[in-house]
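Course assignment 3, question 2. Fill in each field.
Student: A.L.
Task: Predict the tertiary structure for the chain below.
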Amino acid sequence: MVGFDIALLPVLRELAERGSVTAVAAATHRTPSAVSQQLRTLQRQAGVPLVERVGRGVRLTADGSALAGMAAGVATALASVESAWSEHLTGLGGTVDLAVFPSAAELLLPGLLTRMRAYPGIVLELSDVDVSEGEFAPLTADHDVVIGHRPDGARRADGAAVETVALIREPLDVALPLGHPLAERERVGIGDVVDETWIGVPEGYPIDRVLTALAAASDTPPSVAFRTIHLPVIENLVAAGHGIALVPRYTSGTRAAGRFRLATLADVRAGRRIEALARPDRAVRPAVRTVLEALVAEAHAVTT
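Answer field:
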């Protein structure tokens, strides 16, 4: 491979992750024609087809996918050298873009910000996101760290493209109005609650997958009166007697006293995994690694 320009590799990697020349152009602040030109140059240097036409767009060939995977390794190696040199010259610092969904922000963000006071050279830029389970990993293309969640048993993000740092396994409990017949029970079974009216999250979100699994175990479709991504709204509706809900134990537990009761599910191990996701080339940056370590420490603190 003669005259192979590794500076062109990132555009191939971006195409593999974003799926279209237009998306790559928008993310990298180039024109689509400039992206296409770089792809043609890289393909000529590689000596084999890297992309092929599909309808009005393009997709990677098998060789293109292989080279895109190698591009991630190159980016990680370069980022490691650049970050180490920068730290050598100026000390630990830089900006870290952290995307976090609301209930994880409730649980982790106050303590994280307190911990980061020990690192005045690191600036945290915070983004509020709330997406379905499969959409957290793609966000790592635009953020240094993404805090996502998935239900027990669901697969982790692809380890080759995304580094996953486990933070919390948060059990899911059943939230019951104070006057509910089951409100004095510490544990409830699937048969006790499956016919109830539920307050839920949107379909495709991790907690909804658990509710669907409960329904499948009893062969009874759940009756969901209302769906929302906002956990406090769910809690308010339960407290007002409009239904019951599956809620995360540590997060909702801080607001339950005097408003609603939490009962453990007796027949199933229901929970969600809260994780920090990062591209490997971003995770090697000392500032990003420091944030990840602070997140792990804070997750341990809030659960113990």
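Instructor remarks: Residues 169-268 form a domain with the D-Maltodextrin-Binding Protein; domain 2 fold (CATH 3.40.190.10). Residues 204 and 296 are 26 Å apart (CA to CA).
Grade: pending
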